[in-house]
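User: For my dataset I need records formatted as: sequence, then structure tokens, nothing else. Please produce one.
Assistant:
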Amino acid sequence: MIAIISLICGTAYAQQDTGYHWYTPAWIEGQGFPVAGKYDRLPARAEKTVPPKVWSLSRMSAGLSLRFRTSAPDIMVRYVVSGKQEMPHMPATGASGVDLYSIDPNGEWKWSAGKYSFGDTITYRFSGMSKDVGEYRLYLPLYNTVQWLEIGTKADSIHFLPLRLEQPIVIYGTSIAQGACASRPGLAWANQLERIMDRPLVNLGFAGNGKLDPPVTELLTDIDAKVYVLDCLPNISGLPAAEITEKVLTAVKQIRKMKPATPILLVEHARISGNAAQEAAYEQLLLHGEKQLYLLPAAQLGLDLESTVDGTHPNDIGMQQYAKGYAQVLRQIFNEPVGNINTTIPCRQYRELVRYDWDLRHYTQLRMNKKEAPKVAIIGNSITHFWGGQPAGPIARGTDSWPAGARNMGFGWDRIENVLWRVYHDELDGFEAKKILIMIGTNNLQMNNDAEIIAGLQQLVLAIKARQAKADILLAGILPRVDMAERVAKINKSILQLAGSTQVQFINPGQVLLKADQTPDSTLYTDGLHPNNTGYSKLATYLQPYLK
């Protein structure tokens, strides 16, 4: 009777799809390889090397997602899957459903409730959507194979966002990693972790078949990962302890042969007897000098009597506990601490999307760093962004005075927490700069007190020092503002003290924009905040000896 009622309710939610314009996804997030099927997780060549069950499970779309942008008020998703839509311990919405999240202009995550209908073709409709969305992220089914999928809107087109370029988190695991038994895809712990870290993630969880098989482990090294996670104990715990230890040793050594410096994280399980055997392998590897090897203890996952569906597979509560436990250890491995106030919590932003694409500029920085690493980088907001240099911005008010050879790492409307996100997401990785100039904080003045701004700047400076240990770091005072002259002068004294405590050099270029009475010279600004061409020339003259 319950199943009949559920079917009737689901049918009641069915929506007519007439009048929609339909779009096929251009890119699929979460795939670590070129694949044969559009929604596969392993490359076609793997069919000949991995166990048949692993290959079959790799056709399921766990961890895959679509990123897109639209201003349409209504969004509809329709698709067909090939397998059973539900399992005894997992509802259809989790096994075969989709899940829509979005990021608002200030970088905050939102979830959208969709009206769904499960039939031969599954449909989800999302209504009343905001026009001010920087990104939509649609998570695909956890335990089914997608045959085809389309996204439709009535009034506006859909712009599919290209694949992210940051190094991904790569997870090799079991049914728990694949997503059993989340009630919807976005609640699977790996998908929660992907949002918490806001970093690409490749989910190679295979139900009942995460067994540290060498052919699968070998495939991991094809991916340039930020970290390799081995979370396979639930599927090998029935083996003798010595065999478990040997499997872990072999897997780590196999990865190390191809990736000698990439972090590897071994994960315990709360209800598995194999923890001691894996820990023995961990201790043995450390004893032999293994570096960048980490262990996530079962206790840190925080599972309790409310955490599972059946004593093994997490429910939504357990999934959240898993994600938080993982995030805690990964932030330590990546050196990405997060505080309790907004200036210390990294996030993206889309406050000026009408003028430039924040994500695109970030990925342009990453590409340019690989092609030609900068010796001098100037990090800032629109004051830097709209000055000059490369990559070029939509406005250039002082091209002739831009410091020669310096990389423009200014992003319009950035606050401290947005720069922190960029530093945490690889903009200063993989090269050694000579000079790094930090010019950020003015956009925090209207929403944060001085102590919060200083806390954010401190975390930012420490993050930059950790990634650019050999660079001379210059911390600039906030430039004078016509509307906040006294406050800027006051907080700059605190920034001077911060520079001393963090052992970086304080400079105060804004003094060249002041009149003799120490008030801002309005003739040097376009709007009381952004310098004009003359103002930029004065700044360039001041900065020139510091950036040599």
